[in-house]
Amino acid sequence: MPSAFPSALLGSGRPLTLRGTGHSCDGQTVTEKDLLVTFAPDAAAQQVRDLGHGLIETPAGMSWYVLERYLNRLGSAFPVLPDYLHLSVGGTLSVGGVGIDSVRYGMQVDHVERIQLIDGTGTSRWCSRTDHPELFRFALGGLGTVGLIERAVLRTAPYHRHTHLHHTRHDTLTDLIEHTERTAQRDDIDVYYASIRPGILHTATGWRGSASKRCGEEGCEIVSDLSLRGNYGAARSVAPPPGHVRLCTDYFVPAGQLAPMIAALDALRHLAPMDRAPTISWILIVRRPPDAISFPFTPVGTAPVSIGVGLCSSVHRGPGAITAARTAFRGLLERCLELGGRPYLYGVNDLDPALTERLYGFELSQLAQLRSACRLEHVNAHLPLVQAAPGSTALEPSPHLEMQSRADR
Q1: How does DSSP assign 291-306, residue by residue?
Q2: Does the predicted model carry a pTM greater than 0.85?
Q3: Is residue 29 predicted with pLDDT exceeding 70?
Q4: What's phi and psi for 225, nearest 5 deg?
Q5: d(CA 345, CA 250)
Q6: At 69, is the secondary structure helix, strand, or coil?
Q7: Per-residue pLDDT, 393
Q8: d(C-alpha 313, C-alpha 367), whole Å
Q9: Which of 140, 336, 361, 363 has the fewest beta carbons closer than 10 A?
């Protein structure tokens, strides 16, 4: 495929939907008439550049698994990896990206130096904190609403093969919540995740490297290449029973608000059609770096430490049951907002214009201006973020951005 193909496609003006590898999108990238633009991760393996000084340049279509294996051979690693490593780099950067390492390193987008972004005219430009900074902010976590991420320059960390992983079984949900909140106040932990399943309340805390705390007590193991094992949210990967569909969603609340969020989630166990015991597939802690910038649409806002909860449920494959389940999820989203939290935009989140405005406010007007300036009216136009952006197809392009665009051609 010619390297100019993505630019030619975006500049064609035909309706397009952008997608990463399409893992668990809840239909966000399924449309009736749009052309679907997606990545083939394995085709990108030969296009990585080591820039030195801990920086790596990678095509956005590469999978995290292939990239991490490449980095490990150089003695490096990416600070935050998802639980499923066959996602594309550009795909997770477009939603924020969290993982078990987020307890120390925040979101994936916190470790992006710059990105190469293709707009609706086919123009490709490099964006960073200093070059086209607003496009940089809106592209990372922005679901492809301001263009296609073609390449990314990422900041890496030293590679530590071993992780000392301490497992704890909790007798009560209250104990697990309190343990998680205490852990969120610490800044010396490298790995954290928790899961709540019928009869199992489990947390895991880890330290990277040979100098980490030794495993001298019960419940501790030394794990090689923990991140490459992946699939900590195993409930997501289990096939639903015959005649059922799996619906998953994720919510993030500021540290200190986990108990009321879990209470709202746990209440679903007693509601039809959620009576198949919805599973809280994971709990993660996200600590933003001190110099973190504000991304408008990522799940973690201004709170320095947030806690994320992922929920999956098997629902009977019928319009009535699915509608009722989505209504219940909408109630959870409302509760999340009341607690000062945000949804992870990769999953079951029914955002109508009023709720989207409540979540993102004036950022939607800026999104509309950027989309107009970049001629993106035909790209991802069906997304709730775009639908809620006022006058997104009527605003005049920004002269300043147009001048820069011509200079970047």
Answers
A1: TPPPPTTSS--S-SEE
A2: yes
A3: no
A4: 50, 55
A5: 8
A6: helix
A7: 47
A8: 33
A9: 361
Whole-number Å distance between alpha carbons of 11 and 3: 14
Name beta bridge partners: 125.
Answer: 117
pLDDT in tens, 339-386: 999 999 988 888 888 899 999 999 999 999 999 999 999 888 888 899
CB 94 within 8 A of CB 140: yes
| Three-class DSSP category at 399 | helix
CA proximity to 314, closest of 224, 245, 213: 245
> Using CA atoms, how far apart are residues 172 and 262, in angstroms rounded to an integer?
13
Residue 30 has pLDDT above 70, yes or no: no
Q: How far apart are the first and last CA of the chain?
A: 21
pLDDT at position 301 over 60: yes
257 and 321 Cβ atoms separated by less than 8 Å: no
Nearest to 314 by CA among 382, 263, 268: 268
Contact call for residues 93 and 62 (beta carbons, < 8 A): no
